[in-house]
Amino acid sequence: MKMRMLCALVLFCAAALAADPAKAPAPAQGAGMSGYSSMEVDAGRMKGNFATGAIDEMTDGVKIRLLSDDPDKKPLPMKAQTMKFTWKDGQTTPSTIVMDHNVEVNQMDTQITAGHAEWNFETGEVVFTGEPVVNNDRIKGLRGEKMMLNVKTNSFEVTRVRADQVPLQGMDDAGGKGGAPLLREGDVKDWGGLIAKLRAEANAEAASPGKQIVSQISADNRKLLMSVDTAVLLQRKGDIVKLVNSVLKSPKLYAADAWKGRTLSEEAQKLAASEKRSPEEQTRLNRLLLTAAYPELVAAP
Question: Does 210 share its domain with 257?
Answer without folding.
Answer: yes
